[in-house]
Amino acid sequence: MELNARIEAILFYKTEPMSLKALAVFLSVSIEEVTGGLATLANVLQNRGIRLLTTDTSVQLITAPEASELIEQLRKDELSTDIGKAGAETLAIVLYRGPLSRVEIDRVRGVNSAFILRNLLIRGLVERRAHPTDSRSFIYAVTPSLLQHLGITAREEMQDFAEVMNAIDVFEEQSIAEEQTSNPITE
Predict the structure, then answer these.
(1) What is the pLDDT of residues 31-49, one digit of tens each?
(2) pTM assigned to the model
(3) Less crowded by CB within 10 Å, the N or C end of the chain?
(4) What H or E segment, with its residue span, contains residue 68?
(5) Per DSSP, what are the bridge partners of residue 61?
(6) Region of 129 on the Ramachandran plot (φ > 0 left; ψ -120 to 50 alpha; else beta)
């Protein structure tokens, strides 16, 4: 697969900005090669529904500006529907365990949560913040408007919060123990 196609696949999967350096490291190529692959990809995408948004240090796929009316209609349609089981599950994870990264959310859910997180972001139920220790990624947290909608000022005020958190801790400890038992590290 050509470099520009591999870059496109990675950016499509990530759904968020990715540093040029991280792309170079992951693809085992130089930053100059990444820059060349991005130039080719930008040319390929020129008359398509997506574009590359490039800064000095990062890049991401975005919708084409010409599609803004179409995307706005889609956004309005999405906001008029229920968040569904996957949305409620993801929201509960962020509400109880957040702030946390998408990778951590994916680990808990067992599936890629990018689309669901985007939906929750659009609705203003979660917010994306810079990761405190990894400048290349983000963490997700509930918004003040969600807490207000729930009638609370802090997540700890939710009914049975301490019991739920304890149950989550026990579950995670058991999961880690099972994982270590099934995947022992041998020297």
Answers:
(1) 999 999 999 999 999 999 9
(2) 0.55
(3) C
(4) helix 68-79
(5) 52
(6) beta
